[in-house]
């Protein structure tokens, strides 16, 4: 698991919306 994966997931969700 890479550090900051949560931030990436949140950004992806934000972009997906």
UniProtKB/TrEMBL annotation:
Protein name (database record): Uncharacterized protein
Organism encoding this protein: Trifolium medium
């Amino acid at each position: 698991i890479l550090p900051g994966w949560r931030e990436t997931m949140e950004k992806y969700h934000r972009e997906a919306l």
